[in-house]
Amino acid sequence: MRILGVDDDNVSRLVLKAMVTSLGHECLLAADGVQAWELLRRGGVNVVITDRMMPDMDGLELCRRIRAELSTGYVYVILASVLDDREEVREGMLAGADDYLSKPLQPHDLGLRLIAAERVSALHRQLEHLSAELRGLARRDPLTGLGNRLAMQEELATLAQRADRYGHQYSVALLDLDHFKGLNDSRGHQAGDHALHAVARLLAASCRGGDTCYRYGGEEFLCVFPEQSAARARVAVSRFQRELNALGILNPASKHDGALTVSAGIAQLTPRMPDVESLLRETDLALYRAKANGRNRVEVAGEPRVGSNPEPARVGSVG
Amino acid sequence: MSITPLQHSIGEQPESPWSSAEAPSATTPAVDAAVLDALMTEIGADMPELREHLLSSYLTDAPVLVASMSAAAALGDRPGVAGAAHQLRSSSALLGASRLAQLLAVVEQEAKAGDGDLPALIEQLVIDFGQASAEFTSMLVAATPPEGAGSLP
Fold it and tell me: Mean pLDDT over all residues of chain B?
């Protein structure tokens, strides 16, 4: 392990280093809390053994700071304290120390404490690893591998904050596979899953750096275009539509030569649309229009109908 | 600031390790060399240079701490006294000057508590430190291999 010894006394530091090294660990030293904090912020320290009384930042303050502010992984803290001050030890444990040692330090005791430190540190590392993995899993759609709705909500919330604070703009597109139920009904759900997977891969490949795609639900996908106008988003989505058409995924329910198509609604965050919910509502309405106008087309919220779509509007049921 | 005579001060503090019956005398060694030997053995490695390094570091740092403690006491700076006493206490105990370490514990406690006759305690401390320091110096000299052909007188 890499151990940081903190003591304002030179002799105590030298002895601590000799002990830690003789126990087979690496030892860094700091003469006070401020120095220790600088070393800790660089990361890589597993255990801190700190004296309680030090000038500038004392051991308690260092403990509190480690627990409140350190983001480089769990650090096991052992407070070195004089034997006769039980209140001092209690304060230290409350401030965030994991264990304590009586001064003057005995190599044997230190060795025992470090056995526990090593075990607890390993458990914390495992926990951090698992929680990162879990965090990733909780935000990924298992079928398509795209981010799920939770991941999408987090990104939109971040973008909304930036838009609010710095005036950044962004657009979103909601895509819905046309007649997907028909595909499921005629070719089976496995074929439906394959189609969703293929669409997701194509979508991810078609997105430019910085743009992100999510599985919004069922056969719906949401693309986020940061720093881009609705017009730019339309270009991107239209390109994707052409690519999907070219892929020719079989959908017997399609009115388009039996190939799977997609409809899309786009909206851009504007000052009169202050929150994410309104933006998504506008996007949803635009998608509804695309469906109502014949599918396999793109509609932009707040835009007059223009004939730039791949096919003229057709009357049909939505779905 | 008047300095209370030492014996008077000790007589008033029965809880201090210095009851008159066991008051330190110049004939009692201030340093138990076995403590440092045991520490070196426990650390395991045969490190004569570490032993020398520890002694010389102590002999360099400790006089500064004792001086700053005296100055802080004269100025009535009790946190200053407590801090220096705490720092010196650890190293004194580590290297075997346990009587000095005990006296420093008393100084630290009384400085924190804000009572007790600090100047008198510090006067005793200076005497104890002088003795411990002399013994540490002998240990260092004994540990240092003689340079050149001549041996120590």
Answer: 79
The pLDDT assigned to B146 comes to: 59
**Taking an 8 Å Cβ-Cβ cutoff, which residues of chain A contact chain B?**
7-12, 14-15, 18-19, 22, 51, 53, 55, 82, 84, 103-108
Neighbours of A123 (CB within 10 A): 11
Residue for token pair 């009692």:
B28
Tokens for A84?
């006769």
Give how far Cα A192 sits from Cα of A135, A176, A202, A220, A262, Å: 28, 13, 15, 13, 14
What pLDDT digit, counting tens, does each position of A154-170 carry? Answer: 999 998 888 888 888 89
Q: Do residue A11 and residue B47 have CB atoms under 8 angstroms apart?
A: no
From A13, which residue of chain B is nearest by alpha-carbon distance? B91
For residue B97, what is the nearest residue in chain A, using CA coordinates? Answer: A104
pLDDT number for residue B11: 40
Joined tokens for residue B64: 């500064």
| CA distance, residue B25 to nearest chain A CA (Å) | 25
With CB atoms and an 8 Å threshold, state whether B87 touches A9. yes
A241 closest CA partner among A192, A194, A195, A297: A297
- How many C-beta atoms surround the C-beta of residue A43 within 10 A? 12
Instruction: Tell me the whole-structure pTM to 2 decimals.
Output: 0.70
Phi, psi of B143 (to 5 degrees): -80, -25
State the DSSP H helix or E strand holding residue A213, giving kind and residue range, or none if neither: strand A212-217
Establish whether the linkage from the previous residue to A312 is cis, with ω within 30° of 0. Answer: no
Contact between residue A105 and residue A23 where contact means Cβ atoms under 8 Å apart: no
Check whether A209 has a pLDDT greater than 90. Answer: no
Residue in A55, A103, A107 closest to B42 by CB:
A107
Distance of CA A187 to the CA centre of its chain: 36
* Option in A15, A22, A53 nearest B94 (CB): A15
Residues 6+ apart with CB under 8 A from A93: A79, A100
Direct distance between the N- and C-terminal alpha carbons of chain A, in angstroms, rounded to an integer: 60
**Interface pTM, i.e. ipTM:** 0.73
- Residue of higher predicted confidence among B62 and A53: B62
Residue A65: the pLDDT is: 95
Check the CA dihedral B78-B80-B86-B89 and report its sign.
negative
